[in-house]
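Title: Request for sanity check on ParD-like antitoxin of type II toxin-antitoxin system prediction

Description:
We are preparing a figure and want to confirm that the structure record we downloaded matches what your pipeline produces today. Could someone re-run it with the sequence below and paste the raw structure tokens into this thread? We only need the token string, no images.
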Amino acid sequence: MGIVKISEDMHENLRVASNALSRSINAQAEHWMRIGMLAELHPDLDHNDICRLLIRAEQAGGLDLQHVCALADESQATAGAAL
């Protein structure tokens, strides 16, 4: 575990979002980082696709980056085959 320094404005955004979504500030920051990381790794996926992947990963036993990426690749292959 480490310490991440963020701006006061971002901290305020985290505070507001965490209250609205009933998460801790740390859980909200981790959620945004997870979404952002997956968006950068898979720029062709939209937010809904990423959320579906995270749900599928959780159902399969939790967030494992390799597993989530494999699910993303599988989803992309399925979508490509449907076209």
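Thanks, this matches our download. The first helix runs from residue 8 to 20.
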